[in-house]
Specification:
Largest sheet: none
Shape: globular
Number of strands: 0
Helix content: 55-70%
Distance between the termini: 76 Å
Length: about 180
């Protein structure tokens, strides 16, 4: 099997375990979380994307890694990571937090799509060995990033359900009342 074939198999199969893990463990929990907390969890993961600057380090990547791929991938990741960090810092200010959530997800997904495009156009599979130590990034890390961007946009698009009063919650201190049991006396 050629290195290009192995790399392409890795790219595709990198999504399978993450989709299985995401569907079984992550998505059910994200759906139960408050929207802010769910977006915070996703932003926390993406805040580590500053690590993408590693594509620019000689000795970590090979000298023949196409700069058309490396430069955009590095700075796209860096920008996404910074925006995610800013979103985390702004969590208590919704008027700033939500635009930053949209921004880091938009910049991040554009970065990944353009990286896939550049990888195809620049024949990255044939040069996969030039990725050096960064080989694991597109195979292991990128699938989770793409999946969480899609989940973030899905959660942004769906409406937060309004809390419905529970049966028997007439404000008289029942089990579903917001008052403490001692205040109902």
């Amino acid at each position: 099997m050629s290195p290009a074939t192995i790399f392409n198999i890795h790219l595709v199969l990198g999504y399978v375990p993450w989709l299985l893990c995401f569907g079984a463990y992550i998505w059910p929990r994200l759906k139960l979380m408050d929207h802010v907390e769910a977006q915070r969890a996703i932003a926390t993961l993406h805040s580590f994307r500053f690590f993408g600057l590693v594509f620019l380090l000689p000795g970590v990547v090979g000298p023949n890694l196409p700069s058309g791929f490396a430069v955009f991938a590095a700075y796209g990741d860096f920008a996404t990571g910074l925006l995610a960090m800013l979103a985390l810092l702004a969590v208590r200010r919704p008027s700033i937090f939500w635009p930053l959530v949209v921004a880091f997800n938009l910049v991040g997904i554009v970065d990944l799509v353009v990286d896939y495009y550049h990888g195809t156009v620049l024949q990255l599979p044939e040069l996969a060995g030039q990725l050096g130590a960064t080989y694991a990034i597109p195979i292991i890390y990128v699938p989770l990033l793409m999946i969480t961007h899609i989940a973030a946009f899905y959660m942004l698009a769906r409406r937060q359900p309004k809390a419905m009063p529970a049966a028997g919650d007439d404000g008289a201190g029942g089990l579903n009342s917001r008052r403490s049991p001692s205040s109902a006396r």
